Amino acid sequence: VGDAMALRVLAVADIHSHRSVLRVIQQEMIQHTPDVTIVAGDLTSYGDAAEVQRVLDAIPGRVLAIPGNLDLRRAFDAGIAKSHAESLVGKQIEIRGMWIAGLFDQLIACEILVVHEPPVGLLDDVGRGRHIGFPEHFRALDRLRPRVLLCGHCHESPGVVTYGGTTVVNCTLGSGGHGALVELDGDLVAARLL
Question: Are the CB atoms for 188 and 147 separated by under 8 Å?
Fold first, then answer.
């Protein structure tokens, strides 16, 4: 069928309903023109369906999202269904020949794996040596070996690291960051915080 095309992703997490954070995302979209924006959870802080929809509809273009620990699952499901965004909960979505999946109950092979909490020991330090990542996300990373793993949750540890051939990106906006730009082109992966 030929080589996959290049894919440019704006990766963000931990919006927590803040309008100022949504403005930052909109500015980064204008500057970088991503093919897709992926939200790795915590769109709101226990917001209702209308709040989830408001946050998602404030992000232009194609948007994929998963809920975070502060997103009520029923509100997320109802809100995303009314928005222009697509849920990655337990799904695989193909864009430009690359598979993107959200990890929930089952493991799905993909190029980009989206979780909310980081794998334990990777970009999960909240200070004083306390690591709050999830062992099950580390096991999924080890087993699936995606090219990219996107996460958020730990506002104190935005960054990009490589583990076993996977580029792990904590794209949190919780500490004043601007998310991350991730580009996949053939065998190459380039990721940087914005």
Answer: no
